[in-house]
Design a protein that fits this description.
Residues 2-34 form the Small ribosomal subunit protein eS4 N-terminal domain. It holds the Pfam family RS4NT. Keywords: Ribonucleoprotein, Ribosomal protein, RNA-binding, rRNA-binding. It is a single chain. The chain is mainly beta. It folds into 3 domains: 4-109, RNA-binding S4 domain (Structural Genomics Hypothetical 15.5 Kd Protein In mrcA-pckA Intergenic Region, Chain A, Roll); 115-166, Ribosomal protein S4, central domain (OB fold (Dihydrolipoamide Acetyltransferase, E2P), Beta Barrel), CATH 2.40.50.740; 173-222, SH3 type barrels. The chain contains 2 helices and 19 strands. β11 and β12 (140-143) form a beta hairpin. The longest helix is centred in the first third of the chain and has 9 residues, at 54-62. The radius of gyration is 18 Å and the shape is globular.
Length: 234
């Protein structure tokens, strides 16, 4: 399988130039799909400008100088995506991967590199009757049955312990990840369950007014205010 893809064919969420060269690195299989994740080399070279050449980025990664969610990552194709925290200890820099209002990934400088927000996308029962939570980034963990699909948690990394839990309900603070309102933070005003193949609709209230969006774009990020720095005004 090719380790590259054409720049013009890269997902529109990637904030990269399209015509400077023909090819760009392709993310390897991992926590995020190609549509919702960027390879680490693209983040370090094209967004953070840590180095200009792929060879230099590979050397930095080989030396273990870059962490993703508190864990050293050496694969330059490793996919990073929404809410991941990238840390470079040598320069005391931490960044959270977010979606901007243009629908493209952006990096938000943060001071807390040990908090990762995760949306619960599914729950399963595994051997022994234990509950397994499945998160938006493809990771899983065992937990109590107190958590529900579409809820969100704050995970302390790298120890992977749940610090906070936010319910998917009216009144919670939410972040919109897609559509024409991508990158907007507001309060969940109404949840409309539609009993058909049509997606459920969510009304989000903001100081600028209310708007509707589809359920899959909504991520709860706190109760009264965002629990993490999103790089946007609530």
């Amino acid at each position: 399988m090719s380790q590259h893809l054409k720049r013009v064919a890269a997902p529109r969420s990637w904030p990269i130039t399209r015509k400077t060269s023909k090819w760009v690195a392709k993310p390897s299989p991992g926590p995020h799909s190609e549509e919702y994740g960027m390879p680490l080399i693209v983040v370090l070279r094209d967004l953070l400008h840590v180095a200009d050449k792929a060879k230099e980025i590979k050397q930095i990664l080989h030396e273990g100088k870059v962490l993703v969610d508190g864990k050293v990552r050496k694969d330059h194709h490793f996919p990073v995506g929404l809410f991941d925290v990238i840390s470079i200890p040598d320069i005391s820099a931490n960044y959270r991967v977010m979606i901007g209002q243009d629908g493209k990934f952006k990096l938000v400088p943060v001071s807390d590199a040990n908090s990762k927000l995760l949306k619960i996308v599914n729950k399963t029962t595994v051997t022994g009757g234990r509950t397994q939570l499945n998160f938006h980034d493809g990771t899983t963990m065992l937990a109590s049955n107190d958590y529900h699909t579409k809820d969100s948690i704050i995970l302390k990394v790298p120890e992977k312990s749940i610090d906070q839990h936010f319910k998917y309900e009216v009144g919670s603070t939410a972040f919109v990840t897609g559509g024409k309102h991508a990158g907007v933070v507001g309060k969940i005003k109404e949840i409309r369950i539609i009993k058909s193949t049509t997606p459920n609709r969510i009304t989000i209230s903001t100081p600028a007014g209310d708007f509707d969006t589809v359920e899959r774009y909504v991520v709860v990020v706190g109760k009264d205010t965002p629990a993490i720095d999103l790089g946007v005004k609530a």
